[in-house]
Structures are given as structure tokens and as C-alpha cells.
Amino acid sequence: MPIDLVINVLIAGTLTGMVYGLMALGLSVIFGVVRVVNFAHGEMMTIAMYATVVLFAALKLDPFLAIVPVAAAFFVFGYLLQAAVINPFITRPEHSQFMLVLAIAIVMVNGLLMVFGPDARNIQVDYQLESFAFGKIFVDKARLYAALAAIAVSAGLFAFFRLTRTGKAIRACADNHLGALVVGLNVKRYYALTFGLGSACVAVAGCVMILLVDVSPALGPAYTLLAFVIVIVGGLGSMGGALLGGVLIGVSEAMAGLFITPSAKSMFSFGLLILVLLFRPQGLLGKKT
Length: 289
Hints:
CATH architecture: Orthogonal Bundle
Largest sheet: 2 strands, antiparallel
Structural class: mainly alpha
Helix content: over 70%
Strand content: under 5%
Order of helices and strands: HHHHEEHHHHHHH
Distance between the termini: 44 Å
């Protein structure tokens, strides 16, 4: 196996993994604060991908420019979804929360099928066929730009939670729900804000992911499952773990496709999940509870 081919595939897997990490970051943030597992996460990403396709077809809006309106719309959608639908289930048993969010996911998938049908859609832009060449090493422009967008959004989210008063208040709600109520924080509002931020993250991931894969309604459940694998590998509730898990899964999929067959990608992802559950159940960057 030529070493330059291995390096090219490794780079592609790493860049794709960064987008995976941003997708999983939204799920990790929601769970880390609200303690509700968003089983409609992949479906939300699929809707964002379709929204990007529609904006490109109607307005010729580049996917990277579509990030702003799509992310803003998803922030509002996530905020309202949490405030109006999910908040009443916060204190209910976990199986009730599971059934609620699963029902939302099924509604989303079937809604996409009704509107767009089962056929796959994509976007074609000039830089999808271009690469940066460094000798025998080639870096796809689309993957590189998508990874840079994922890094920028992730860094912004980290800074928000660490440096702003609102971010610190959200962290306080996550660390001590009762204590946050005692000091007068509007916990439900901060929960809704967190769900909005997580939804915006997955929307950005969807906007750039459409450059890498075709979208169809059936893609939603697959990405929900992939997001779960990533956050469990990295550590539930760990933002850094979500990014690390995304890169590891992206690299493992790329290497499996190179050395074995592309159909073995999922086998390696779940193999990595099994190893983490066996030797570090809390995840690579997760904390023991």
C-alpha cells in the first residue's frame, strides 16, 4: 500500500471526522445540560441538509453562506421545541422522554419523505472537484473548508460556555439544578437556550455535510446512531470528547474503507465503541459518576 495513499485517506478521514465531531457536539451539549437524549438529532441534521439544498436551488446560495440563516432558524426551532414540548417531560421517567423524542424523529423522517420523496439530493459547486496539492498529498477543498467551519463553530461554542455570563449560568444549571433554582436562575429558559445552541450546531454540520454526501430521508436515523457512537466513545456530556470521538470515527471509517471495503466502515466504528465500553466505560474524556 503506497504511503502517500494512506496519508491522503488519513487526512480525508480526519477532516470528515471534524464535521462528525461538530454534529455530535450538539448532542453532547444537550445531554450534558438538559439530561435529555435527543433521539431526533440525525433527523435534524438531515433537515438542515435539505434546507441547504433548497437555498442553493432557489437562490444559488453557497452552503457556507447558508450556515447563517439555517443555523439561526434551527436555534429558534430548538429553543421552541425545548420550551414548548420537551420541558414538561424533564421530570418524567426516561422512557417517557425516549418515546417523546423518538416520536418527533419519526414525524421528521416521514415529513421529509412527503415533501422530497425517497430520492437522494445533492449540491454541486466548483470547489468540490478541486484540491490543494502538496507533492503527492492532496487535500480536498470541500472537506478542508467543512472542517475549518466545524473548528470555528466548536471554538465559538467553547468560548461561549467558558467566557460569557450566560454560558457560565448554563454550566451552573448543568452542575447543580437545585442550586441554580435557589440562586434565582431561570433553569427552563437556560435549558431551552442550550437546546437551541445544540440544534444550531447540528444545523451547521448539516450545511457543510451536504458537500460530502448526498442526502435522503433515510439518512437521519443513521446519523443519529453515529452521533451516539461518537459521544459514547468521547464521553457523554464532554464537548472535547465529542470532537475527539468524531475524529476517531472518521479516521477508522476511512482506514476501513481503504484496507478492507467501504461496507466495513460501520463494523470498525462499532468495534471501536465496544473497546471503549470494555476498557473505559465513561468514554475517552468522560468522567466517572
